[in-house]
Amino acid sequence: MSDTPTPKFLGENSPLPASPEEAELDYVPNPRKGSLYMVRFAAPEFTSLCPVTGQPDFAHLVIDYAPGETIVESKSLKLFLGSFRNHCGFHEDVTVGIGQRLFDEMKPQWLRIGGYWYPRGGIPIDVFWQSGAPPAGLWLPDQGVSSYRGRG
């Protein structure tokens, strides 16, 4: 019998959680424990709701992290991010909250999140958070998302 936890959602029919608070993130052992490397998740069609108007807000999220003992299971992350579709929150709160929850629960060596939000009221808002200085020697590619330029 293995002590490795079985991911709760992988291979299962999993409904979208009603809220980020109800969403459960799964973490599995780092398959390359002791190696310094970076994992990137991109969510180019992320949505949440404006806390003032209730209208949808759209963002391209990029989450980079250097794993510690565990990695986040990707389906649980997808369900967690999808749970924001019915969540009202300012861009800053949503972006930083996602980063902090992942960092607090997964305990990676380092984590950063870039929230590249599409314009609200004619002003695009980009929000960035990181857990601290990246580990020495970690390869940090650019997140690859340009600032909003409109149709031009």
TrEMBL record:
One MF annotation (Gene Ontology) recorded for this entry: preQ1 synthase activity
Highest taxon, organism lineage: Bacteria
Record Gene3D superfamilies: 3.30.1130.10
Binding site for substrate: V72, E73, S74, H91, E92
UniProt-annotated catalytic positions: C50, D57
Pathway(s) where this gene product acts: tRNA modification; tRNA-queuosine biosynthesis
Location in or out of the cell: Cytoplasm
Pfam families with a match to the protein in the record: QueF
Stated role: Catalyzes the NADPH-dependent reduction of 7-cyano-7-deazaguanine (preQ0) to 7-aminomethyl-7-deazaguanine (preQ1).
Protein name: NADPH-dependent 7-cyano-7-deazaguanine reductase
